[in-house]
Write a structure and sequence with these properties.
With 202 residues, this protein is mainly α. It has a domain at 60-198. 66% of the residues lie in helices and 4% in strands. It has helices spanning 2-23, 59-96, 102-124, 129-143, 147-155, 157-169, 185-198; strands at residues 35-38, 41-44. The protein has a two-stranded antiparallel sheet with strand order 1-2. Helix 2 packs across helix 4, helix 2 (59-96) packs across helix 7 (185-198) and helix 5 (147-155) packs antiparallel against helix 6. It starts with a helix and ends with a helix. Mean pLDDT is 76; it is low at 7-23.
């Protein structure tokens, strides 16, 4: 009996040692990780999140950022008005091609002028002078006509010159053009941003 007990103890201890040895190599002992081969050497690697580091802005950079923010805000405010006004003005120009009688033209222009006033008088009175300048540029963008040319077409040369003088007093010009590839490149970028927000084609 003692011999049998000794044999059993030996077998159990052997199995325990085998089991202990196998437990050191469990399913979590081998980890799959990304790797790269660099100059013939295989090594693990990890991709870190992008980190942006900004230096403190200089006085000039702060001024440029202030100007850009002011322009962006003005475009956001005025672009919807320019889009609506442009649609009406383009419709008028298209319609006038078919109206040859001068009396009918004046009557039609008078009705559209009332429509424009009803649509825009109240909101436009709340614009700042700077926003008004941006609006004039955007109307030029939407109609391919300066505000001076539009006033001259609809109200006559005297009215155009009068309103040009008023605009000049406030530091603006009805004759200013929209130059998307040079002077107004930043504005054009912002216009595309605003148009995407409204789901429109800019």
């Amino acid at each position: 009996m003692t011999a049998i007990r000794s044999i059993l103890l030996f077998c159990l201890s052997t199995l325990a040692l085998i089991g202990f040895g196998q437990s050191r190599y469990g399913p979590n002992d081998t980890l799959t990780v990304p790797y790269i081969v660099y100059e013939g050497d295989t090594m693990t690697y990890a991709q870190l999140e992008m980190v942006f580091v900004f230096a403190k802005m200089s006085a000039k950079q702060r001024e440029e950022y202030r100007k850009w923010t002011r322009l962006r805000n003005a475009v956001y405010v005025t672009y919807p008005y320019a889009k609506k006004a442009g649609a009406i003005i383009n419709e008028v120009n298209l319609k006038l091609k078919d109206i040859k009688d001068e009396t009918k033209r004046r009557k039609y222009l008078s009705s559209k002028e009332k429509e424009l006033k009803k649509e825009f008088t109240e909101p436009l009175t709340n614009l700042s002078v700077y926003q008004g300048k941006i609006l004039m540029k955007l109307i030029n963008r939407e109609t391919d006509n300066t505000c001076y040319a539009l006033v001259k077409e609809f109200k006559g040369g005297f009215s155009a010159q009068f309103w040009q003088t008023i605009a000049w007093v406030f530091g603006g010009s009805l004759k200013q053009e929209y130059l998307p590839y040079t002077e107004d490149a930043e504005m054009e970028t912002i216009v595309h941003e605003v148009a995407r927000m409204y789901g429109q084609n800019s």
